[in-house]
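So, does this match?
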Amino acid sequence: MNLVLQSLHQDRAAATRIAKNMVQSIAPLAGSQLVDISATAWRCEGVEYSDALKAAIDTACHAAQFDYAFVPSDRTLSDFKLLAMDMDSTLITIECIDEIADMQGLKPQVAAITEAAMRGELEFNDSLIARVALLKGLDASALQRVYEERLQLSPGAEIMLAAIQAAGIKTLLVSGGFTFFTDRIKTRLGIDYTHANVLEIVDGRLTGNVIGDIVNAEEKQNTVARVCAQLGVTPKAAIVMGDGANDLKMMHIAGLSVAFRAKPLVRAQASVALNFVGLDGILPILGC
């Protein structure tokens, strides 16, 4: 295996020293020295993986604010044909429904439900229905305000997507959020496929209802599988990125699952966790 270390430390020399110290601590299990990948990433080749080693690296990296990944030495970006991404708190920094609720003065109530659902403590369908119901009567112009005033891409998103698209990999944005936002992001970033929930709007106001079936964990998984089938590949040719419990099912069928700024439940089950670096942190892991 290769062990890839990444950091956003401003002091490059200090970061390199930290990385070298971590590698030296596992020298008996490693077959090579540290190799620079970029200004923020390093690779140690020929590492003999073990659960004990992973636990030690996890502790050391958390303390030093480094991200790490154990990856097969022959794995490259060309192994994949699809990148599937969650939207809220993954591709973008906000939870859109929380910001919409803020327009109603209800952000604390809605955000508490969102957080519990993302931790896996609430059934997603029930949580979404409850949150959307609180938006009843809100002027639909609030959606545009959220998009223009509050929605920001996560760090590294555009760099990551540029490399993914240049490699000919298709992109999918699959969200438990809303089509109002996924449609605009699709156009803005040139994403190939999107799937999300539809908010009902009547006479310019939200009714508090969702139209059609809810995009929950099962539907996210089905969407990844469906798009892979359209592309003529298995889900093992997909990279899936997410942060919440409702992303786990689609992450489980992927060839590479990436937990981004994720809840502990998700970090524990993902192939890779990016806690400190941006979304473009997947690139050094895949040899870019």
Remarks:
- The CA atoms of residues 101 and 265 lie 26 Å apart.
